[in-house]
Amino acid sequence: SVMYDPFKWLNVTGRFGIDAYSTIGNTLLHPESIYGITGKGVIESFNENSILMNGNLLTTAKKTFGDFKATLTFGGSLDDRNYEVTSVRGEKMYIPDYNSINNTDPTTQRNKLTITRQRLLSLLGTFDLGYKDILFFNVRARNDWSSTLPAANRSFFYPSTGLSFIFSELPIFNNSSILSYGKLRATLSQTGKDAPPYKILPALAPQTTTGGGFAFGFFGGNPDLKPERTQGYEFGTELKLFKSRIGLDFAYFKNTRFDQIVSQRLSYGTGFIFGLVNGGTFSNQGFEVQLSLTP
User: Is 167 left (phi over 0), alpha (psi -120 to 50) or beta?
Assistant: First the structure.
């Protein structure tokens, strides 16, 4: 990570990280074992490689204007995932205790290469404004571009906002022996979610039958797929009484999910069995109450 302060009130921070790992695996099912007797011995080996790169660049400005304190942040982020697995499998072992793919019948040997790549680019911004440590207001916004969605729906925007009022800071409560802390809060938010990779167009799958080659898999494409959405709101209060010996947190919330990305069984007339669609809307709402006691 790198940080730079061009001015006292301005900060630029950049972070970048790589998480990489590799796994080599081997399985041998002895031809005389209960698991390997059907295939007269099975050998399977795989090599798995994964590289996850993520980074962000944020610029933050902080200013005070009389009784107001303002913070503005703007930046972008990158999330890039590369996953690759190479595997080979063979049956009908010639020598029961010799662990080598060359020790299997060549007509049973099958190779498979699986590559999964996914990228998410984002621009984001936040604005926080406080007044005399009593009233706080914030706005957050984010726009994502996902490689797993069709080009027309690849960009999706979701904002959120919140307001809180610490009424215990009012002069009328300064000498209160009952109320130690009191806050009212309200939030309104929306989020977005992309799809799994390689689901907007029918994908080719390798054939393990004699002759090999490719054919369409079970999943059909959906070129009109949209991002999944969630929006909700919450109202609540937080109270601390008698020198914070008694605490009460109460909230009412409601969340609604729509355009959910779900797997749907398709008509056989399409040539496929499954496909992803935007379908289903459900909401949940309720009350949350938390009570804390300190002797």
Answer: alpha
